[in-house]
Write a structure and sequence with these properties.
Elements: E1 4-8, E2 10-13, E3 20-23, H1 26-34, E4 38-42, E5 60-63, H2 87-103, E6 107-110, H3 112-120, E7 124-126, H4 129-132, E8 151-155, H5 160-165, E9 169-172, E10 179-182, E11 187-192, E12 198-203, E13 209-212, H6 224-260
Parallel strand pairs: 1-4, 1-5, 5-6, 6-13
Antiparallel strand pairs: 2-3, 7-10, 8-9, 8-11, 11-12, 12-13
Helix pairs in contact: 2-3
């Protein structure tokens, strides 16, 4: 069976009717599907305890891009250039990230998701790169096509990402105004922009918990190296799925054996 991979939704309004909806970019769904996984969209639930019925069924988690994260989660007050935030989304995704870290569930964070993984583990962010850490690299390129290559990312030797991507340098797009500032608990920084900005992270002692600041879901069809990231992610989720089945079978066998006595 193909692994089930949860992707949280964002709240929005339908363009033609202004009706409230939950959704996410199709590119995330297609990237997971093309790599062999089955995407499962997770709505913003009013009662997070309801996640208890869903999470045991998931084999992996993809945290997508999106709006800014409330800075009080990393001990700061809002910067004047802080963008739109959604408290309900923050609450949901932080709960999911902490569950994934605790249960060793394969997780891929993209852009906001990359930043959120770091915050969930106690790290901090630049709320606005242009004013807090200015450089010659333009990171917020929302006026360009989403697959526009902006800069190279230097990948640390010996990292999981270097192993997966098969390179120490890769071309990336750039669609963000926030970034990781200080690394969270167990977080290893493994990729850098030309200006030294943090572009990739991995969580030590976790089977697969990786974050990338760029948007590989917009690049993988043209660049097979980025396709390897989704393939490795889905493969890790598939392994987790098999492991869960084995544990369930062992538990059933143990119960049957106990009942036989």
């Amino acid at each position: 069976m193909r692994p089930l991979i949860g992707i949280p939704c964002h709240a929005g309004l339908r363009a033609d009717t202004a009706r409230p909806i939950y959704g996410n970019n199709r590119s995330y769904v297609h990237a997971v599907e093309d790599a062999g996984g089955v995407p499962v969209l997770i709505p913003l639930l009013g009662d997070l305890s309801a996640l208890g019925s869903l999470l045991p069924r998931l084999d992996g988690l993809l945290l997508s891009g999106g709006m800014d994260i409330q800075p009080h989660y990393y001990g700061e007050t809002p910067h004047p250039q802080l963008g739109e935030v959604d408290p309900q989304l923050d609450e949901l995704e932080l709960a999911l990230a902490r569950w994934a870290e605790r249960e060793d569930v394969p997780t891929l964070g993209i852009c906001r998701g990359h930043q959120l993984l770091n915050v969930a583990l106690g790290g901090s962010l630049y709320q606005d790169l242009a004013t807090q850490n200015p450089s010659t690299v333009r990171h917020s390129n929302w006026d360009k096509p989403r697959n526009t290559i902006v800069h190279e990312v230097r990948i640390e030797k010996g990292s999981r990402l270097a192993e997966i991507l098969g390179t120490y340098s890769i071309a990336a797009n750039s669609l963000h105004h926030q970034a990781v500032k200080t690394a969270g608990r167990g977080v290893r920084i493994t990729g850098y922009a030309p200006d030294g900005g943090i572009e990739m992270l991995e969580v030590s002692k976790h089977q697969f918990m990786i974050g990338v600041q760029c948007h590989p879901e917009e690049l993988y069809k043209d660049d097979p190296q980025w396709g390897r990231l989704f393939e490795a992610f889905v493969e890790a989720c598939d392994t987790a799925s098999v492991t869960q089945v084995v544990r369930t079978l062992n538990r059933v066998e143990h119960q049957l054996g106990a009942n036989a006595h």
